[in-house]
Amino acid sequence: MSEPLLKVDSLTKRFGGLVATNNLSLDVLEGELHALIGPNGAGKTTFIAQIAGELHQDSGSIRFDGTEVSGWQTPARVQRGLARSFQITQLLPDYTTLDNVALAVQARRGHSYQFFIDARNRTDIRDEGGQHLDRVGLGGRADIAVSELSHGEQKQLELAIALATKPRMMLLDEPMAGLGTAECARMIDLLKVLKTEVTILLVEHDMDAVFALADRISVLVNGERIATGSADEIRANEAVRIAYLGEGDA
Amino acid sequence: MLKVDETFATQVGASPQRSWWPLAGTIIFILCAAAFPAFAKAIGDPSLIGLAVRITIYAIAAASLNLILGYGGMISFGHAAYFGIGGYVVGILYHHFVDGSPFLGFIPGTNEFLITIPAAIVVSGLFAFVLGALSLRTSGVPFIMITLAFAQMLFFLFISLKAYGGDDGLIVRRRNVLFDLDMRDDTTFYFLTVAIAVIYFVGFARLVRSPFGMVLGGIRQSERRMAAIGVSTYRYKLTAFVIAGMGAGLAGALMANYSKFVSPDMLHWTKSGDLMIMIIIGGTGTLLGPVFGAAVLIGLETFLTSWTEHWKFILGPILIVIVLFSSGGLTSLFSGWSRKRE
């Protein structure tokens, strides 16, 4: 059997006395949508930040695509095919929607040490950026400044930017957070399509979304993984119910 | 056939964005600039030509700082260091040219404009590379402080360099020579400076719209986002820092030629502050903001000092009014006259 696309082994991260990630191991297989759930403060976002390379672990290893990437900075991991979206959107508010995506396309296609050509005249890059916007349903909003977009649209844009890096795996940090019911349903539909093309590690609080989308679910509590399994297995798991779903006697 | 139509449609669609004013504005500016010396002489005040030269030089210096401060979001408080280094390159090369002795034992002095100016740009760029590489390991307030500290180190270095005049500075008795131009004539030097400035600003306008400029603007807005799309932000910031240092070096070398004098004051932190004030008056992150800012600050300084030596007492309230009532600087009052951030 081949190695999982992402293989996290005995990952530990401490902030002073707080153990945010505690000896955490997790495999994400090529092609699956793996959901990561857990109560607030379970260390999900810290975990994502370590995989993305924004934080570096105290010990343990992260292997992506068969290579140890622990020592790599974020840009190197992105170029290798590991993209992320942000829970609190990180966009370029002064630029247009299309600029935001085109910049990701530009970055993927090589260095940007070109000083005297007009970036907005590079039609191949702009066209590809437009295609990524179409995919997430923002095709009609290409020339709007990002600061004018609604919260839901900004979440869609986060996804389009991640797609523009042509990732093999996406780390999606709460893509539904703050969305209305209709927007949420649209996002679920979109992720259903995307999960057929790219491996996804999804952190999400919306249980309906998680159970609708995930091939496998891992549960994180206090920085530790307490269970991994299919939706049904997780629903039936006693430890999960006590720790997280709030149905236990404790 | 359809393809041709599509291409045509794209061009038509794109044309409103490519408006006429950059080209027309440049031509109008060149015509006005060309007529200015004659105008100044006609109204009997040829000293205005010298004033225009100083404004032009400071516009270049302020614009170079604006690249990192306004476009890149790096608040460098030590930009005068590169301005001063550019000036000292001209001064020291001239000193050795007159002296006959080589600089550092092997670099002969020169007064050739075509050598001193590129040398000033390269040397300031090298300093910016080394100091930038160290400073950019920090960001935010530590970055402001460390750039200030490095600039002050260089300020005190030049004060203690007795071989080059110490705190008295160096006198450049004659301006550098360029072909057969009469460089002693302020009008000739004015045309030369304006020509260099036009080339500089045309290049600057292209730079900020280029793929590099887009990355730089992206870093200002969210460095985290840029890293997350695979951009190694440090290298781009350092490149911008070096380009900015080179621009200030150019301005410093021109200033050394114009005023025929270089001194540690060119590197003093108040000079860095002046450059910042120019940018804030004119509008941060705008192409022409530094030009307006330089014109207002140098203009006010010149006219107010003829009334009182306490001219900053009047300048202060004027600055406050400008900052309070024109959010985004003077450029925002001429909407459409320059790239705006909001």
Q: What is the first-to-last residue Cα distance of chain B? A: 41 Å
Q: Order of helices and strands of chain A, N to C?
A: EEEHEEHEHHHEHEHEEHH
Characterize the main sheet of chain A.
6 strands, mixed
Rg of Cα set of chain B: 21 Å
Average of pLDDT of chain B: 85
The tally of strands of chain B reads 2
Distance between the termini of chain A: 40 Å
Overall mean pLDDT of chain A stands at 88
- Bin the helical content of chain A: 25-40%
Which short descriptors sum up this protein?
heterodimer; A: 250 residues; alpha/beta; 2 domains; six-stranded mixed sheet; four-stranded antiparallel sheet; 9 helices; 10 strands; 24% strand; globular; B: 342 residues; mainly alpha; two-stranded antiparallel ribbon; 13 helices; disordered C terminus
Explain what this protein looks like in three dimensions:
The complex is a heterodimer of chains A (250) and B (342). By secondary structure, chain A is α/β, with parallel strands linked by helices. Chain A folds into two domains: 164 residues, P-loop containing nucleotide triphosphate hydrolases (Rossmann fold), CATH 3.40.50.300; 77 residues, no CATH class. Helices cover 36% and strands 24% of the residues of chain A. Chain A has nine helices and ten strands. In chain A, the strands form two sheets. A six-stranded mixed beta sheet of chain A has the order 6-7-8-3-9-10, sandwiched between helices. In chain A, strand 7, helix 6 and strand 8 form a beta-alpha-beta unit. In chain B, helix 3 runs antiparallel to helix 10 and helix 3 packs across helix 12. Chain B has 342 residues and is mainly alpha-helical. Chain B is globular. A two-stranded antiparallel sheet of chain B has the order 1-2. Chain B is built from 13 helices and two strands; from the N terminus they run ααααααβααααβααα. Chain B has a domain of 216 residues.
